[in-house]
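Name: Similar to Saccharomyces cerevisiae YIL026C IRR1 Subunit of the cohesin complex
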Amino acid sequence: MPTTDSSENALRRSQRVRVRPSQYTEQDSLSENSDSDNDSRTRSKRKGPRGKNSRPRKKRGPRTNGDDNIASEDENSDEPPPSFDNFIFDAMLDPEVSIAEVATEWIESYKENEITALKDMVNFILKSCGCGIPVETHDIEDGESAADTLAQIQEAFKFDALADFPLVSRKLEFKSFRPNLIEFYKKIINTASQNGILYDDEGFMENLKIWFTAMTSSNLRSFRHTSTLVFLTILTELCNLHVSSSQLINQQEKIIEIERQKKRPAKSRLNAAEKALQLASANQKYLQVMMKDIFDTVFVHRYRDIDPRIRAECIRELGTWMDILPSFFFESQYLRYFGWLLSDIHGPTRHEVIRSLAKLYANPNNTIGFRQFTERFRSRLVEMSCLDSDTHVRVATIDLLKTLRDIGFLEEDDIQIVSSLIYDSEPRVRKAVSKFLVSHIAEQVKTSHDEFNANELKKLKNNFSELDDSWVIFKYLASLLKVSQTIDQGNPASVKTEQVDLQDLYPARSSRTSLAGSSLWEAGFGELCEWPSLVEQLLFDFSSLDSKAKTSTSKRFVELYAIGSSDSLILLEALYGFVKGSIDAIKRAEGRRAKKITDTDAEELLSKIQEDLFTAIPKLLENYSHSPEAVAQVMKLHELLDLNICRHYLIQTGGEGQYTNQLMDLVVKQFKTHKQSIVIEECANVFLKATTSEDALAFADDVRNKITDLFEDVSFALKSVLVTIPDRLDLEELDASLDSILEPLTKLDCLSRVVDIRKVMESPLQDSEEGESTNDTLLVYKLKHLLSNASMYRPDKNITLLIVSITNLLRSYAMWKLGSLIETATVANATTSSTGVNSTTNNGLDLTAKTSDFTTDLIQELELIVDQSESLHIRSVAAKSLLDLLVTVNVTIAQVSSLATSDAIRRLRLFDLPSTIADSTQREIMGLFLKKEKAYAKTAKIELQSGPNDKAYRHELHAANHAAESQLATQGGVEDDILDDDESDDDEDDNDEDEVLNQTQTDQVLSHDALVTRSQRVSRLQQRLLLLDHDLCQLTAKIRVAGLAKLIDQEHISRLTLNIKHLSPLFGLIVGTNIAAEGQKETGPTEPVSSTAATAATSGSANSASNRPENQAEPANTENQESNANDEEQLPDAPAFEEDGDEVRVKTVESDSGEPDDNDDDPQIKKIESDDEDIINDDGIIDDNEDDEDEDETRIKKQEDDE
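Structure predicted for Similar to Saccharomyces cerevisiae YIL026C IRR1 Subunit of the cohesin complex:
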């Protein structure tokens, strides 16, 4: 048998290569260097195929068929790649093939001719890699040169290599390939074990290892992936055989023990059992040696492969091995691989690690063995639950931490950090944490009374029978949520000023605690307690128990149930989520195909919820009327009321007037009493629902009368202040009057959404002695003069709020007036049609003339503010109001033109109204859009594309008031810092946060304090991103509507879509959808309802004509109300990995024990979204240092150019 290649054989092998020998020789050296220890180990073990059926090698003749074609082919790019037939490969493509029969057929062929069978097997793997170049019989015979042969095949194949090969292809023909391949090798090993070939034929596994091991160290990913999967599958089946052999050994040992205990043992049976035991033990030792060998030669190198799919395959199978054979693999030397790959740069690989660990932790038998591993990597798991950029990984990690908490492996600090994720912006994370919290709360409540003995506890419960046991649950939940808020938010003073101001301008309809409550209820919190019990606890006066709780024991007992003011506020917010969660749960159960409850039961449950809620709201309002925050939270509950169900309930109980005479009176009282914007906004929402919703028709008239009276009272208070203010006043006089103006003005602005404000706005500031009033004495013109005067000064926060409130109020008034024109035209058209007489009287024309003049003046004033204001936020508000007003004008002209006669249209002076936007103003509005777009992108850490007109937009925005732009850096305004176009570094807060971040990058895992700081930073960024997204989408929606109305040129509208793929889903929905011309008053952002793809919607008109009296006009409102969405925070840092050839591994430091020490792992976890081809070359290895140096020089040059 020859041990070296003859010149003829070498020539035949070289014919596979289509390049010069020197080229593939260099490539071959790369392959050897990438895993030289594998090759040397393989060559030292085998010099060729060995076994009982091996034959002497014959001298190889000249190569024919495919090889001749390969040698003679020209370099024609259109020539199809080479291919060959293989019966095993063809069978794997058949989804209905019998894998057992194929495996048995191959085993039989192996018995008959080892060389031919082995050639078919190797060619099957080659074709499974997408390679069309087969090995021949003489290649199999010359086993010593297996590595060289494969290297030459790879060199020739690399020109035809594709990223898509059968194992990972999504083509329909390969759908069943992967499961069939895995099943095939399981059957091969199992059948070989049954036939004895696996143990008796020494060359069976050795021959496979010679070829497959060389493939696992290939530079081509398809070779590495396929061969690695084959080895992993073989090792899995070896584990199963090891289990079977252990069972056989136990069985034979029992037989031997039983026979030896007999007085007259059966020698034949005893000898047979001893031989079977000896054989099974020998086979088991062979399996152990083979498993260890495969693990050391394949897994140890491929678990750090540069291809993340191979790493995921390895770690998945490692978990399977531990589950099947814990006696062998469930050891610290194998567990550590899970810990190292927790820092993998690929999200799905980390996900596989977590999933494998979850299965292993779920086995109670593994608890003790996991103690050391948990101590070492627990902090990493907690960190991943907070900061991992892959939501699937975070959710899976939280579920795993729940298991750790049940076992008792989590510390209290860890539980607090995980609990704080209940305020996360991602719904899937909140849902996972809710299950964690429900389990934790249930366990803590069980031990809440352990400090009292049985007799004491029984006596205390009898003495304080008014205390409900469920109150302990709510008390513990409140304390837990308070700690979570502290961890999530940190010091409120650390939140940026402009973010707080934006929160004031855009108050959220659903608080984060409400969303947390809804998630908790969905996770099963309702099984622990009922929310009406919480209402009773909120209404209970715990001070009444002071006279009974005189001893320290009784005081401690009462303390378990008593809640303070801070607890009450948190529980009121959570109550909204509980009620909403219970309603949603019933609707979900009713809406499923397989209904869990009948329609009748669902209706009864919903009615009971509505009755309890309607009864609770007035009581809660009276009890917490002293606290503005609590009042606002209670009035949010009105949003969940179904007024139609409430009406039927009131009719049944005989309290038809209870809604208007009790509940509405309390709301009106709160509106008058409090001046905080959160209360005023919520009162306005209650009024709006009670007057415009379809289920409120029975109450609408009575409620509207109360609101009209309230409106007159508020307007009288405002006029009383304005009458003392001159038309022109300096800044000091304006500042002195701001507090007295802002409260009634804000209330008037909110009420303008609900009732017609024309009469009040056109009333004089004070009664004139002559009985007549001029325009200057009317409230509307006084406010217009005040707006012009306030716009002249440098705005601080209060002046900004003043300008915004006046702008919104005047816009609402103009829309009510324009809406009245439509009504006037409709009535005139109907009268003319019936009588033939034009009914547009001089009085009507005078009113219309005033409408036209005022609207024109207001449009001009808004254009002036957009052009000259020093505050970008005021510019933005004015721009949105301008767009709304002009769209309304165009809608009014269109509707009136379709109703009135040409003479009436002329007399109505509609065409005197401005209905277009100047080109310069359009560019300024687009400049504002660019500011908001960039502010969002900067916070979200995304790169945007620039449009051809972007410079013109910015120039127009800055040119109007260059002096104001130069002072924006020190403006301190509401939104200016966010929208500043300065290219300088972030402010001091960001620098401080980055410094904290950089300080933790040298540690393996963030410390508790560092992790809390990091989590707070992420939370603040999420909130800031949420607000910026809402602000951007508001302006974008109005620009989009103006574009539909042909007010803004199409070239400007097309700019909106330039970065649609990079911005939020809400932005994409607005830009990519035809937005209705009618909408509601803008409201604040709400937390996202779904995850990675957040949902958004635009609502219809806030004032439905069908819900109004016939003599009341409808305001022409074109604003849109959007739900908000939030993008996931992408953390900027990745874990420390080092690249070595075709491998990627975690940077480790050898400890004293000789095991890798993970204390130097970079703690940051980030999903790298990049194409592998950008990292490796065509051969699957990392590019050399010369390319890195070139990239460094290019990057440095670019930085210098930028500077």
